[in-house]
Amino acid sequence: MDKRRVVITGVGAITPLGMSVDAFWANLVAGKSGIGPMTLCDPTGYPCRIAGEVIDFNPADYIPNREARRMARFSQLAVAAGLRAVEEANFKIDKENPYRVGVILGNGNGGFPTLEENCRILAEKGGMRMSPFFFPMVLPNMAAANVSHYLGAKGYNSTATTACAASNQAIGEALRLIQYGEADVAFAGGTEAGISQLGLSGFAVMRALSTNNEAPERASRPFDADRDGFVPSEGSVVLVLEALEHAIARGAEIRVELAGFGCTADAGHLVQPEETGSSAAQAMGLALKDAGVDPDEVDYINAHGTSTPLNDAIETLAIKRLFGDKAYQIPISSTKSMIGHSLGASGSLEAAACIQTITSGKIHPTINYDTPDPECDLDYVPNVFRQKDVGVVLSNAFGFGGQNACLVFRKFEG
Predict the structure, then answer these.
(1) Domain edge (last residue) among 256, 278, 298
(2) Same structural domain, 244 and 309
(3) 42-96 tens-digit pLDDT
(4) How far apart are CA 37 and CA 60, in angstroms?
(5) Does residue 1 lie in a domain region?
(6) Domain match, 192 and 322 both
(7) How many whole angstroms separate alpha carbon 106 and alpha carbon 97?
(8) What tens digit of pLDDT does each residue of 291-329 get?
(9) Over the stretch 125-147, which tens digit does the pLDDT of each residue have?
(10) How many angstroms separate the CA atoms of 74 and 83, rounded?
(11) Which of 54, 61, 56 has its CA nearest to residue 237?
């Protein structure tokens, strides 16, 4: 069957750089860092004591207090982003369409801080003192469940938990859902709020985190020769995806077209990217093929760009593998240079950046790029934003387990 075209009509963003997509984007273009001292848990004794936190978030602004207390923070962030997204899209679910509206969200950890808190209660006070809402708070699917509840979406509902590729996976699967007629609208994106001693410990013992605690705003430095690990972060972005004909019929303002999705697995090392970059390159190529886009048509790449030595070098290699000499002509930037790595939510925050890139004609910089790395020798838009008419954007997300998920966004033309 012919695939339906899918467009994006709303973006809700709750991020370390702002509580709206406009604030988020203004700070990205300005090269502002959202990374500072860690406050959501006590990092004393850990090598990394900095994070990208959503410091202005108050769940009571979106959710009644009693209900908010029964949600883990990752669900609270997702509900807030979802409410903002439907408001921007001017879309309401009514009794005629709830089963034609789906929800697919990505996250990597579920309610890690709540899990840690209740494990302490179990050890110190006994299991019968744990919260009766423990499971409804910590399970990874609860963000999607809560978004569907608050927005009234009764259609297809799912959760992608493919580590740091989860949001791109969720958005890509929502694309398929609409393309093949299973839904007319989908709320898709990701959420993460895993800043806790449990999460901090796990990454610290792997030596995956930056230790540049004295200069938090300079700690995340993707593709720079002095990068020393990623900075943990949190946030949520929810997109309103619609079949083109559905959006036109209701007179919606169309932001961009979501044109392609590609997904592969490394089938190799569980926490290191495949060393030749071939699986990542294949995912990028599949996304472009799905979108009907030639590699020469790509105007910008939003990189996974984690600021870890291995990831950035291999992502660079993968881009060269797919694009050849063209790779040197494509502007590339890493949103994580300013907000850190929000794990399963990262693809959704980067999707918001991709959409704004197309609609604004600006490419945000990769900040803290000071010392070139011979293995990372492409155009990373260092330190200052660039004005450019952008028609096609490729967005990369790669996760533990060898999960690779890539999206293609395109300027909408009727």
Answers:
(1) 256
(2) no
(3) 999 999 999 999 998 999 999 999 999 999 999 999 999 999 999 999 999 988 8
(4) 24
(5) no
(6) no
(7) 24
(8) 999 999 999 999 999 999 999 999 999 999 999 999 999
(9) 999 999 999 999 999 999 999 99
(10) 14
(11) 54
Tokens in use for 139?
A: 């399970």
Tokens of 198: 């449990």
User: Which amino acid is located at 367 in the chain?
Assistant: I
Task: List, by residue number, the catalytic residues.
Answer: 164
**pLDDT reported for residue 310:** 97
Amino acid at 228: D
Does residue 348 sit in the same domain as residue 381? yes
Contact 76, 63 (CB under 8 A): yes
Residue 144 lies in domain: 6-256
- The Cα 36–Cα 243 span in angstroms is 40
CATH of the domain at 356: 3.40.47.10
Residue 1, pLDDT > 80, answer no
Query: For residue 288, what are the CA distances in angstroms to 187, 241, 360?
Result: 23, 19, 22
Please name the residue that has the structure tokens 């918001």.
352
* Residue 394 and residue 337 share a domain: yes
Residue range 26-35: mean pLDDT, rounded: 98
Residue 207, pLDDT above cutoff 70? yes
Name the strands in the sheet holding 101-106, side by side, starting at the edge strand that comes first in the sequence: 157-160, 101-106, 185-192, 235-243, 6-14, 256-265, 403-410, 392-399, 300-302, 332-333
Q: What is the number of domains present in the chain?
A: 2
232 Rama class: left (phi>0) / alpha (psi -120 to 50) / beta: beta
**Nearest C-alpha neighbor of 361 from the set 401, 391, 404:** 391
Mean pLDDT of the chain: 97
Three-point CA angle 397, 85, 6, nearest 5°: 60
Residues 131, 247: Cα–Cα separation, whole Å? 43
Predicted confidence (pLDDT) per residue in 159-202, tens digit: 999 999 999 999 999 999 999 999 999 999 999 999 999 999 99
Residue 121 amino acid letter: I
Q: What is the pLDDT, as a whole number, of residue 258?
A: 98
Domain boundary at 224, 241, 256, which?
Answer: 256
Residues 73 and 217 in one domain: yes
Q: What is the CA radius of gyration of the chain?
A: 20
